[in-house]
Every structure is written in C-alpha cells, then in structure tokens.
Amino acid sequence: MKLVTPILIALVAIATSASAYAATARGPICQTSARVGSTTYYSCNGGYHGALDMSNGTCNSWNHRGMILGSRYYRYYGGCGQSCRATSCNGGAGNYVVVTGGSGWQFRQLHIGANASSKSKTCDRCALGLVSSTGQSYGAHVHADNRRYGTRMTAWYTSAGTTCGRSAYCGNVVGRPTL
Ligand SMILES: [Zn+2]
C-alpha cells in the first residue's frame, strides 16, 4: 500500500504534462519587411529578454495579428489606447492578449495599439489591434513570450531556428510555444 501514493503522483504528473503541447506560432505582421529585432537579448546583444520582439518599422499602420496557428482564445487586457511612445500602462505590457494553456503555460503578445479589433475573442490569427508601442516599448513592435508560471522560456523560438533578423512575416513559423 505504501507504493500507491507515489504511483498516483506519477500518474497525475504524466497526465498534467500531457495536457501541454507544442503549438505553432507564425509571425504577427503580414508585411514581408517585418523582422525579429530581439530574441534572448534585447536588440540581440543587450540585457536578458527571453522573448521575441518583431517590427516592420511603422507605428499604428499595420495589424498586430494573433500568432498561434489554429483557433485559440485570446483574452484581451486593454485600457492603454494607442501610443507610439513608451508608457507605464498595464505594468509596461500596454494592451496585450494572453492565450492560456495547461500546466502554467501562457503565450502573450504585448504593446498592441487598441482599435475596434481589440477585444477578447476566439480566432485563428485574426487582427488583435495595431502594431504599436503601448506600455514599456521603445519603437513600435510586437513582443511575444511563452511563459510557464510567469517565467519566460526560450526553447520555443530557438528550437524553430529563430534568430535576430529573421522574417516575422505572418506566413513564417517563428516558434513552437508550449500551451
Ligand atoms: Zn519584448
């Protein structure tokens, strides 16, 4: 009988980890000039970042699209309007969306410029707002991270071969986040 509890714990652990799986993330901007500007480090050689920053060099001109391939629920956190300059709104995240997976996993997209598309919804890579700079953002861009219990992970984009300068066009796979 003493073995029952450890076996049960092991079974629960297997079931929990099985609920998270590798999704596919494509670039958030449907313009071929869109590029990855930060990965593990800010601006590719600054301080630790642990996320993708992607830009096409414009502000409030282009759609910021959901990145996860397939229909997902994007929960929207707004209230920051549109801005092409850094603000402290929402703790620096600006307007943002969260896709929630199992076992503490999340996929987030930050710094959205709010427009009529900016609301919680279930969709497949739909427009979430504009490529903007709401929150602690220097230069309009899309920030995407895959976190587990709040810790940013990097394997989701390094395993897909994403490095600085790579295309962030909406037809290109930039990562395989766990959800
Ligand atoms: Zn970022």
Features:
30% strand, single chain, 10-stranded antiparallel β-sheet, two-stranded antiparallel sheet, mainly beta, 11% helix
Could you characterize the architecture of this molecule?
The chain is mostly beta strands and 179 residues long. The chain has a single domain, classed as Glucose Permease (Domain IIA) (Distorted Sandwich). It is built from 2 helices and 12 strands; from the N terminus they run H-E-E-E-E-E-E-E-E-E-E-E-H-E. The chain has helices at 4-18, 155-158, and strands at residues 25-26, 35-38, 52-55, 63-65, 72-77, 95-100, 105-113, 121-123, 127-131, 142-148, 151-152, 173-175. Strands 2, 3, 4, 5, 6, 7, 8, 9, 10 and 11 form a 10-stranded antiparallel β-sheet that branches. The radius of gyration is 17 Å and the shape is globular. The termini are far apart. The relative contact order is 0.26. The model is unreliable at 11-18 (pLDDT under 50). The structure holds zinc ion.
